[in-house]
Fold this protein.
Amino acid sequence: MSDPAPGNASPIPIGLAPRQLAWRVLQAVAAGAYADAALERELAAGNLAPLDRALATELAYGAIRQRRLLDAWIDAHGRVAALAQPPPLRWLLHVGLYQLLFSGRVPAAAAVSTTVELAKRGGLARLAPVVNGILRGVLRTRSALARRPAVAAAPAGPEPLPAWQGLALPADPAAALALRRSLPTWLAAELLRWLPSEEAEAFAQAANSPPPLDLRVNPRLISPEALRQAFAAAGVAAAAVAEAPLALTLPQRSGDLRGLPGFVEGQWCVQDRHAQAVVPLLDPQPGERILDACAAPGGKTTQIAACLEGRGELWAVDRSEARLRRLARNSERLGEGLIQTLAADATDLASLRPDWRFYFDRILLDAPCSGLGTLARHADARWRITPAAIDGLVELQARLLAGLAPLLAPGGRFVYATCTVHPRENGDQIRCFLATHPGWILREQRQWWPGAAGGDGFYGAVLERPALRAAAVEPTPAVAG
Ligand SMILES: C[S@@+](CC[C@H](N)C(=O)[O-])C[C@H]1O[C@@H](n2cnc3c(N)ncnc32)[C@H](O)[C@@H]1O
């Protein structure tokens, strides 16, 4: 779509700008951009008031998550199937349909009129009647359902209609789940293999809800309660998180957080509550040698550094130099000076750094993974990840595990973590590792599922290497405190 030529453009009517921005984001994502980067770029270029920014964010992320379901509504009410529509029209319809089906605060008439107006101004004037026809068709179907006695006469007033109500659902349970919750069918089928159907449903629901924004407080500088009070004084609501002692959660907060109290001073960083539970599995102690093998951008490295209280050796390795630069900025802001960085392929560290054989007391491998535990946080991720990509990740994770194992000192601790829920990347991966590394022990493993209580899906396994007999190897002495 092209914007109207500046000379011909009449002033943008109220309410059009955030919808236009969301439309642009959907088109950018369809062209390959990441949703968060595309949204950030558009928000920076636009000059929207805070409420409009919030609406644009909700529409863009919501419509991307619900792509599958919104396409099904186009299929049901258009003369042409969604996938055969001109792409700008398909994405504009998504912006309009999302408002009709999901956004309780946008009146239906406004959803229809703004979408039609955008079509006229955005190079789709000839297709404006199509936009109007499809949106009004969906509205008629939904209004008729809402008037049904069983719905209208519910004791507590009419329940909001589920967004799929009015569509014909497939008989196959995986295909039906995929349509209702807007997931790729392969993922819906996997979820139903891994979980009872009501838990698969809860997973999908969590994946479609805006995630909470959690912070990790830097306890060397401030307590969570003192930071909560500083936020309250600045008019920012924050609450403690029962399962994460150093976490605060900020409901309804997103966007640029750098202006919040304590950011510049390094009093906190953004980190999901379940991500915060991984370093306690590693249990780093002052004076130890620690390797964080896939470390950038350093959420867990800085958490480890805080545990070391300035004593010991902490290496942050990542193959991405750009991401390591972000790690360096984060650790500087948080005042964690102990961290040393190395840009390298962690599958190959044993040959790059032969002096590191048996060197580390503890190793964290926060492995590259499919990210299926963070679908709510990355609106477009479900449409990117494929079973073939997961095959490749499983193979890379196995090589990382095998390549890093020789660096752990006898009796040392190795934590393997991912932000996915796929068993092949988690429990199955660790089973394969144990089968090929005799003597290693699995102390503990834990799968956090994303769910109603908030928090990303994470996995952590605590492995221990057997202490070697004295003659077999001479481990390097521990770092002096
Ligand atoms: C899940 S992220 C790590 C997140 C980080 N631990 C944190 O808490 O902020 C995985 C990281 O692994 C890195 N990576 C992927 N393959 C790698 C490899 N072969 N060697 C080293 N780093 C790798 C990626 O660049 C990415 O930064």
Notes: The radius of gyration is 25 Å. The CA atoms of residues 293 and 346 lie 6 Å apart.
